[in-house]
Design a protein that fits this description.
The protein is built from twelve helices and 37 strands. It is of the alpha+beta class. The protein folds into three domains: 9-239, alpha-galactosidase from lactobacil brevis (Beta-galactosidase, Chain A, domain 5), CATH 2.70.98; 290-331 and 343-486, Aldolase class I (TIM Barrel, Alpha-Beta Barrel); 579-677, Golgi alpha-mannosidase II (Immunoglobulin-like), CATH 2.60.40.1180. Strand 19, helix 4 and strand 20 (347-352) form a beta-alpha-beta unit. Helix 7 packs across helix 8.
Length: 679
């Protein structure tokens, strides 16, 4: 039972009201040139209703007939312990003619309250999850993602503060999306409009169906950013995080390690160099030195090229077959490697990129591919694999599942190294008039179905109940995707400086509790060498820990430091998915002149950990931070991991006046274990 109650009777009443009166449901679309608001009886005929009640949620599905062709289905859920509501809308042509033109499908919500402030973060590429706080009353605020990778540049999660409380909002769609916030001063109301498949304007042919994004509305009652952050994280972990396995076991922190840099052979982007004769020395050394990780990360370059050759350097330009390269992996040698890992308590993570192909003509000649499935146009280097086509989808998914199953790979990693939106629009144009957005709708729906099939595959032989979500780093971290996957590497850029890692943690972890980073500090993303000391280790303590080390190729490998870091991370792991408090102002990756501090706190056990960093060029030696959560306990004990010093302080004093931490030198990280007690 949660110590903090997030129950919200007003949110429960609002949800009940919009279900009782679907005409008032906060959704609209254009059909045949007519604007349709909600689902009024005057325009729709109810043809179906189902309600499923579970202990922690209620799900209702309503279906209406609009005319002789269009049927509309609303699926919505409510989580009474949190007051969170969510919905998705499906449009389906069950008739014998094309539907009228369907366009502008969007959620529209209105929030009454003064002084609206919009808080959130930007996306990965170029913005590195930079936070913002915007006065909505002063100016309309709009966000769009149009590249085809949903969480590059902008980020579809928002915290709108207004009046005495606020609301967390999210759009779950792995393609294009938009969100708009506008304040009406006369009414004192902020209007929020959100949609997916930007510029949708299409007829549906008989038998076709499309869906909207998943829209989430999570209102909270206390205008306090710490409260809002932990309300959201608590709901996310309880209801949006995928399960670890087929038994529904909650996903817990885990570690990974890629062996491609430990082969002694040239590689490209940390890939290509692995083969049947390289993995065993690395795994045996990890086991012997007691630095074993939970997953062995098997990255790109393991597949035969479309022309049947064995790629030596070009992992990027040779994808598409999803068949193990028999030169690198003859016979059942890869299965032998996964069996060995399993026998020693390690699982295997394997890289794929199914939405992109290379050399379609060779794929057709040698692998049964249909070159018409390859989407290409002048000026765009990448060739998209049309998974929206049912035959292409089945060819692609069957090959992936076969490789996973035959080698008993527990965790599927998916990358996507191309912006596909222009190719989607090109395919739309080939379908004729009034088909704008149909290709993206097919692609994204197919993508979610593909992940569902792959998860079912890995679960069938006791693998994982989730996937690793990647799209050139953090390009696919929308809420719907994160119901199936987790970002094992939250950004490609987060393989460089400690300052960037700290910057990202204090921004992204408010929104996405389960994420990971590389654990070295390196001059560039692809450098094989870097710094791994206690300062870097502690900045890397995230729910997913990606260990970057050479176990046999580096004669100077500090195994004692590896053991210390892994053991310390395992201890702090109990708190990494609990409440999260940022204790110092956010800073950019260039700012290394101050402090960064944050704490993880478990309100159920009244225990946690505080991590504080005096950055590289910080001239001060003293940091004072307040612990907002401490006021709920009579006394807080702080135990220093390095010195063994134990301090006790009244919880109220720690919350109001703070605690002071002294640092002996720049580039120092302190770890304090926290425990609360009643007086």
């Amino acid at each position: 039972m949660m110590r903090v109650s997030y129950r919200n009777p007003e949110a429960d009443k609002w949800y009940e009201a919009i279900l009782k009166d679907p005409a008032a449901f906060p959704f609209c679309f254009s059909y045949g040139g007519q604007l349709v608001r909600g689902f009024p009886d005057s325009l729709f005929t109810r043809v179906g209703k189902s309600v499923r009640r579970e202990e922690d949620r209620e799900t209702t599905e309503l279906c209406w007939q609009k005319d002789d062709a269009l049927f509309v289905t609303l699926r919505c859920s409510h989580y009474p312990l949190y007051g969170v509501s969510e919905w998705t809308v499906w449009f389906e042509n069950r008739g014998r003619r094309d539907t009228d033109i369907l366009a502008d499908a969007e959620t529209v919500l209105r929030f009454p309250g003064k002084y609206p402030t919009l808080k959130g973060i930007l996306g990965d590429h170029g913005n590195n999850y930079r936070p913002y706080a915007l006065d909505v009353a002063a100016q309309r605020r709009s966000f769009e993602s149009n590249s085809g990778r949903a969480t590059h540049v902008n980020f579809p999660y928002f915290n709108l503060e207004y009046g005495d409380g606020g609301v967390m909002l999210a759009i779950g769609w792995a393609g294009s999306w938009r969100a708009d916030f506008r304040y009406d001063a006369a009414e004192g109301v902020t209007e929020y409009r959100a949609g997916s498949v930007n510029h949708l304007r299409t007829r549906l042919k008989p038998g076709e169906s499309i869906r909207t994004a998943l829209f989430v509305c999570a209102p909270y009652r206390e205008r306090n950013e710490n409260y809002a952050t932990n309300y959201w994280r608590s709901w996310f972990v309880a209801h949006n995080l995928p399960p670890a396995d087929g038994n529904g076991t909650p996903l817990q922190p885990f570690s990974t390690c890629c062996l491609a840099g430990d082969t002694g052979r040239p590689n490209s982007d940390g890939s290509i160099s692995e083969s049947f004769d390289t993995w065993r020395p690395s795994l045996e050394k990890m086991i012997a030195e007691d630095v074993k990780t939970d997953f062995r990360w098997f990255d790109a370059g393991w597949y035969t090229a479309p022309d049947g050759s064995s790629p030596v350097r070009d992992w990027w330009g040779t994808v598409g077959t999803w068949t193990l390269d028999p030169v690198k992996w003859p016979g059942k040698t890869f299965l032998a490697s996964t069996d060995f890992a399993r026998a020693h308590g390690m699982k295997t993570l394997m890289w794929f990129e199914p939405e992109r192909v290379t050399d379609p003509e060779s794929l057709e000649k040698n692998w049964g591919y249909d070159a018409r499935w390859a989407v290409r146009m002048p000026g765009i280097k990448a060739i998209s694999n049309n998974i929206g086509d049912p035959a292409c989808y089945r060819w692609t998914v069957s090959r992936i599942r076969k490789t996973l199953r035959e080698n008993k790979v527990e965790l599927y990693r998916e990358d996507n190294n191309s912006d596909q939106a222009a190719l989607w629009q090109y395919l739309d144009s080939l379908e004729g008039e009034d088909r704008r957005g149909i290709t993206e709708s097919r692609f994204i729906d197919a993508h979610y179905r593909m992940w569902d099939e792959i998860i079912a595959c890995t679960l069938s032989y006791c693998g994982c109940g989730f996937v690793d979500s990647c799209a050139s780093g953090g390009g696919r971290n929308d809420l719907e995707s994160l119901r199936r996957g987790v970002p094992v590497l939250r950004s490609d850029a987060d393989r460089t400086t400690t300052a960037l890692r700290l910057s990202m943690t204090t921004a992204l972890n408010r929104w996405v509790p389960m994420c990971g980073a590389n654990n070295k500090e390196k001059r560039d993303q692809l450098s094989p060498v870097g710094t791994l000391d206690l300062y870097v280790w502690r900045a890397s303590y995230l729910p997913i820990l990606n260990v970057d080390s050479q176990f046999v190729q580096d004669p100077d490998q500090d195994f004692e430091m590896l053991r210390r870091g892994l053991r310390e991370w395992k201890r702090i792991g109990a708190y990494l998915l609990k409440d999260f408090y940022v204790l110092t102002p956010w800073h950019t990756e260039e700012d290394i002149f101050g402090f960064t501090a944050y704490a993880f706190w478990d309100p159920d056990t009244a225990a946690g950990a505080l991590l504080a960093f005096r950055q590289e060029k910080c001239a001060e030696d003293m940091l004072t931070v307040t612990l907002a959560f401490a006021g709920e306990k009579g006394r807080i004990t702080l135990a220093d991991e390095d010195t063994g010093e134990i301090r006790e302080i009244r919880g109220a004093d720690a919350a109001e006046y703070g605690i002071s931490l002294r640092f002996s030198h720049p580039r120092q990280a302190r770890l304090l274990w926290l425990h609360g007690e009643e007086l």
